[in-house]
Amino acid sequence: MKEIRTSAIVAAKLKQWGITVTEGVGTMGVVGTLKSNTPGNHSIGLRADMDALSIIEKNNVSYVSTIPGIMHACGHDGHTTMLLGAAKYLAENRDSFSGTVYFIFQPAEEKDDGALRMINDKLFDRFPMDAIYGLHNLPGIPVGQFIIRSGPMMAAADSWVVTFRGTGGHGALPHLATDVTVLLAEFILSLQTIVSRNIAPTDAAVISVGAIQSGFFESLNVLPSEIRVGGTSRSFTKDMRDTIERRMKELAHGLATGFECTAEVIFNREGFPLVNDAQSTKNAIRAVESLVGAENVDGNPSLVNITSAVLVVLPVVLRKTCEIQSNDA
Q1: 76 annotated as ligand-binding
Q2: 289 annotated as a binding-site residue
Q3: Is the pLDDT of residue 298 over 90?
């Protein structure tokens, strides 16, 4: 929740265009409310994320980050700019629609629970809407093409950390130690069997290692007594999610026992899969096809988790969906 300057800029722009602004929704969230000139009973939300990543940017471009250690590596600055553009256009053309549009600028999409904080701050009670529409950039597809589908669209994102503990020892006398490094090697290879052997071939899931920590390069002859490994997993259903967590724990503890070590497993469920509402998706497809043509609209699920261009369509029951899935977790 560090989007202090960004949320202030967003609020100022919306006010400048005559849009009613509510700040501090879920701490740093901003919501703009725009009503049409003609009365209308329907309302929709247009959503964008505002946050950046903790990365040192080394690009040599005109838009390089000016904040040390912070980079818009996921393109949320583009999302914010696009939604501001839409807000400006609709504010200047209030006769082009009938009803209410809410412009939702979400903080903390990458690391924290920005969306859930806004929902818990009664987002849908304070700003009742029929559906939410949003998009995410996707490097690698041609400009002017869109990926969109109803049903499961983007995966749930979970993080995990496994710590193996043994006795350590001297590298020249490994038989006197319980070597956690060999244990880790076996575990990393075994992780890949979860997707290939425990998840149906018709389903999609990913388990990736993102960090390994142990030992000291100043003491390369020492076998460490503890080693940590962590990463991310992606899945589309609760059953897949349960299977990944269960098998990861079974493999970690089983292999640790076999190597006379111990294992500690932390599995954090951090995001829910995006399931697009069928009717709202049809509405979006019609709008996009009228803009870029049917040949430029494709539909495939993604294992990226976003709370690209990919168009995401959320039904108004998002709040209840989050509550149900939280309870299931």
Answers
A1: yes
A2: no
A3: no
